[in-house]
Amino acid sequence: MPAKKKSNVARDWFNTIFYGALIAIAFRSFLLEPFNIPSGSMIPTLHVGDHIFVEKWPYGYSRYSFPFGSWHLWNGRFWGHEPEVGDVVVFRNPINESQDYVKRLIGKPGDTIQMIEGRLYINGEIVPRDNPRPYIIANLPEALRSAGYHIPEKNIMIKGNKIWVDNKPAEFNYTIEYKDDKYCRVNSWDCGVFEGTEYTETLPNGVQHSIVEMSDNAHFDNTMMFTVPENHYFFMGDNRDNSGDSRADIGYVPRDNVLGPVWFIWYSHNYYSPMLAVWNWGDKMRWDRFGMGID
């Protein structure tokens, strides 16, 4: 009798785990899938350390929507609607199918895309960018705070031509002189602070979003004219001078590779802060980004 009871307990545990796994797979495949942001290619919209939810149903489903999508079980999409220019989208990298990318949709089939001296042209028309403002892109192993400039992290203050870094403990406070208008280096951590310009860009369909440019003469600021082929899309990062996207690295993205639009940031923390350091959560969490929707 005890052996039978033990067998029933084991079976109940197996059923719980099995059906729980099925529910989790179905939830991730059909409804929402979580992703984290490991790079700064979508600054200022998405920051390193942001954790996002992606909606799986709006664009319908392809084999990449499900586990083992790389097995080529079928081609094409079913249900859903076409993404719109300006959508922030997660897709499977067509060059390396083990990687998921997040970028902004810039061109649909038949559109022409070109960069000329840092300006984006869609179908031969220049895309307006307005409201320039300074933007500091900082790569520091601690959080940063906005003060005087728009800085995505915390604990840096700009005063004139100096950056005051307020680190802990207090005896490590120091001042960094700018070498020029664009760049300075924090030697103690071998990390850089870079000044760019943030703009508001208005796409042809009226969608407005922020971009960051380091200059108008960077590597991808002058390109050939791209014509987006049928059943493909053209994607770019909002951090225009620091993004591997359709301009070079990944090319046109097949329609089947699209997973879905980014819905919102459900959690965000300083990427360089250890997650297990619970005592630092108060300073390391980006509380203002929790629940932030994505435009």
From TrEMBL:
Main localization (coarse): membrane
Record-given protein name: Signal peptidase I
Organism: Candidatus Enterousia intestinigallinarum
Keyword annotations from UniProtKB, A to Z: Hydrolase, Membrane, Protease, Transmembrane, Transmembrane helix
Reaction catalysed by this enzyme: Cleavage of hydrophobic, N-terminal signal or leader sequences from secreted and periplasmic proteins
One of the record's GO molecular function terms: signal peptidase activity
Domain Peptidase S26: 11-129, 154-267
Gene3D superfamilies: Umud Fragment, subunit A
PANTHER family referenced in this protein's UniProt entry, alphabetically: CHLOROPLAST PROCESSING PEPTIDASE, SIGNAL PEPTIDASE I
Enzyme class: hydrolase
Alphabetized InterPro entries for the sequence: LexA/Signal_pep-like_sf (IPR036286), Pept_S26A_signal_pept_1 (IPR000223), Pept_S26A_signal_pept_1_CS (IPR019758), Pept_S26A_signal_pept_1_Lys-AS (IPR019757), Pept_S26A_signal_pept_1_Ser-AS (IPR019756), Peptidase_S26 (IPR019533)
